[in-house]
Amino acid sequence: MVKVTFLHPDLGIGGAERLIVDAALALKGFGHDVNIVTTHHDPKRSFAETNNGTLPVTVVGNWIPRHIFGKFYAVFAYIRMIYAALAIYFMSDRPDIIVCDLVSACIPFLRMASDYVIFYCHHPDQLLTQPGGWLKSLYRIPLNYLEEKTTGQANKIFVNSNYTLKVFKQTFKSLDITPEILYPSIHTDFFDAATPQPLKNIFTDKLSNLPADRFIILSINRYERKKNILLAIDALATCIEKLKGTENFSNNIYLIIAGGYDERVNENVTYYQELYDYATKLNIIDRVIFLKSPKDSEKISLLNNCDVLIYTPENEHFGIVPLEAMYLRKPVIAHNSGGPMETIVNGVTGYLVDGPNIVEGFANKIADLIKDSEMRKRFGNAGRQRVIESFSFTAFGVQLDQVVNDLTKRN
Q1: Contact between 180 and 156 (Cβ < 8 Å)
Q2: How many helices (H) and strands (E) in the chain?
Q3: What is the DSSP string of 237-255?
Q4: Pfam families per the record (predicted)?
Q5: pLDDT digits (tens, 9 = 90+) for 134-168
Q6: Whole-angstrom Cα distance, residue 165 to residue 40?
Q7: Which pLDDT value is given to residue 163?
Q8: Of 6, 68, 145, 189, whose CB count within 10 A is highest?
Q9: Of 108, 125, 98, whose CA–CA distance to 32 is shortest?
Q10: For residue 107, what are the contacts with CB-CB under 8 A and spacing of at least 6?
Q11: Assessment of whether the complete model's pTM goes beyond 0.85
Q12: Would you call 362 helix, strand, or coil by DSSP?
């Protein structure tokens, strides 16, 4: 048995958080002693396993500011994670291995607390930052240098896809390292044990009046501009226009936009309002339903009750939601870029869309799936089989367990 501590900045409900939770569950299933350390954990906005005692969670450094007047988020993220690393160092029972992700600046300090550090690179942080003025560009120079140097100090580096591996090599040119690909998976036992509910039972104030013959397009992403959720609204409006006057037209086509929402994050608040105002401007606000931070059980119910998942981020480094949708037999429409190119098989489990008019492309594929229920069923069945064969939770756990044992030489 190996004692493994996972360190993650904010234990919310995004894809990165889901991976950390699933990795901890996988290693626990192999008999290892696991726990999670984080700088923020809101029981109302987190995965069930972090609240019900399944995975012990320790919060440190939550008192440290996340920014100053909306600036310097990256600097304070580094400070918070370094503080968390030092907190692990001063804990009485130090771990054999520490797994961290997102912020590499803490790795030198984690090496003081443990002999082995695994870093999971979802995507280089310097490529995720939003464009800014000259001051931001200036202060990012030392941060980008620090990210590259500290990433190279991990004993083992994972990336989540071939796409991210390529970006890693292009970004961190000074590192003579080839990370190992560890595809995220989904905890299929949890999905299998879940009992999906009718939408009106769990979202009575929003979804109780939907007609029985409705067609539901679902988008699940955090309320962040880089997730390009405006595309989902544009695609819905364009699809409705395309179908008007045809036998496939129905007034019962709806778009549900669901995802992580944190009132502490200004972008979440402003982007939600931007999306709402945009749907109102297009005169389709009666067709768009917004849901904030659905629980695990609610997300499974949403996926079970939708007809198609639309995944709007471009160059997404992986994307766990398409796997969840495919496992629950739902066709997926996504950009022909990034991680979805490795998970979705175009024309088999869904559609990958590119071209000069991306809105038109998404709308056309939605319309095709509205017209053909047999195609939706065929894509759904193929999607579930693909997840089972290529992205199984068992294979994910075995690979992670092997690395843990190899690092500590405890077989």
Answers
A1: yes
A2: 16, 13
A3: HHHHHHHTTSTT--TTEEE
A4: Glyco_transf_4, Glycos_transf_1
A5: 566 777 788 899 999 999 999 999 999 999 999 99
A6: 29
A7: 95
A8: 6
A9: 98
A10: 85, 100, 117, 119, 150, 151, 153, 154
A11: yes
A12: helix
Model confidence at 23, in pLDDT bands (50, 70, 90)? very high
Residues 6+ apart with CB under 8 A from 160: 19, 120, 121, 122, 181, 182, 183, 184, 317, 318, 339
Q: Which two tokens stand for residue 76?
A: 């304070």
* Distance (Å, whole) CA 168 – CA 160: 11
Under 8 Å between Cβ of 11 and 38: yes
Residue labelled with tokens 């502490």: 264
Compute the distance between CA of residue 221 and CA of residue 311 in angstroms, rounded to an integer: 8
Report the distance separating Cα 342 and Cα 188, nearest Å: 19
- Mean pLDDT for 374-393 is 96
The pLDDT tens digits of the residues spanning 171-222 come to: 999 999 999 999 999 989 989 999 999 888 888 777 878 888 899 999 999 9
CA dihedral 15, 316, 173, 9 (to 10 degrees): -20
12: which 2 tokens?
């919310």
